[in-house]
Amino acid sequence: MFENQVVWITGASSGIGEALTLKFAAASARLVLSSRREEELNRVRDLCLEAGLEAEQVLVLPLDVTDYDALRPSMTKVLSTFGRIDMLINNAGISQRARCVDTDLAVYRQLMEIDVLGQIALTKVVLPQMIKQGCGHIAVTSSVAGKVGAPYRTGYCAAKHAVMGFFDALRAEVVQQGIRVTTITPGFIRTNLAINALKGDGSEFGHTDRNIAGGMEVNQAANVIMKGFRKGKPEIAVGKGMEMHALWLKRFFPRLLMKITARVPPQDQL
Length: 270
Fold this sequence. Notes:
Layout: E1 6-10, H1 15-26, E2 30-34, H2 38-50, E3 58-60, H3 68-82, E4 87-90, H4 105-133, E5 136-141, H5 154-174, E6 179-186, H6 210-213, H7 218-231, E7 235-238, H8 246-252, H9 254-262
Parallel strand pairs: 1-2, 1-4, 2-3, 4-5, 5-6, 6-7
Helix pairs in contact: 1-2, 1-7, 3-4, 4-5, 8-9
């Protein structure tokens, strides 16, 4: 299904982005790997080559999605290399671990820049090309936090709610133009998300919290996501823990969910 398709993945240097990259490599896609860490992108590229891709099938394209002036030249590089973009996976992002009262406004601003505006900006650059092609697929990694509020994650939840709303609306706009939009909704996945999360002063959280440590293994999560892509699902929920039940509790028993999230002890959040 993905053979020879050009798939551009942001946040490809680790976690879900890296795991998806290797799944697409196994499916013989042509890959564009982006993140801010070129050394790690080169490591992932080497894994793609070990999986059977040729060097000309993988483009390492370092990119900070908040460097808006760099986005269009980056797309031009992709088009000059592969001639088209079949799929864009907006997977760059950062999380938060701090109480609202202890979180600097600059941290909220940074979360919105990276998790929301960066995804929107790159999508807006790529979307006209997909419309010109008459086809394309845009995906974004949101979160269960994009539908459920959780303590110590006010900024992250706000950002992921915004992502979910934007891409749900975009789906309705572009479906008649042959463009698919998929929202990925992970629960707790064993990645470095918590380690790299921002504390209230903007410094790194620095360790994995209990929920993520006990979450779904990242390669298993990538398998679920790939299966959802193949089935054409507009939204792909992925996870194995109690947090996944929050998705239907929010819909059918919202007051119960609010009571549950308010009672979660700090040691399970931080």
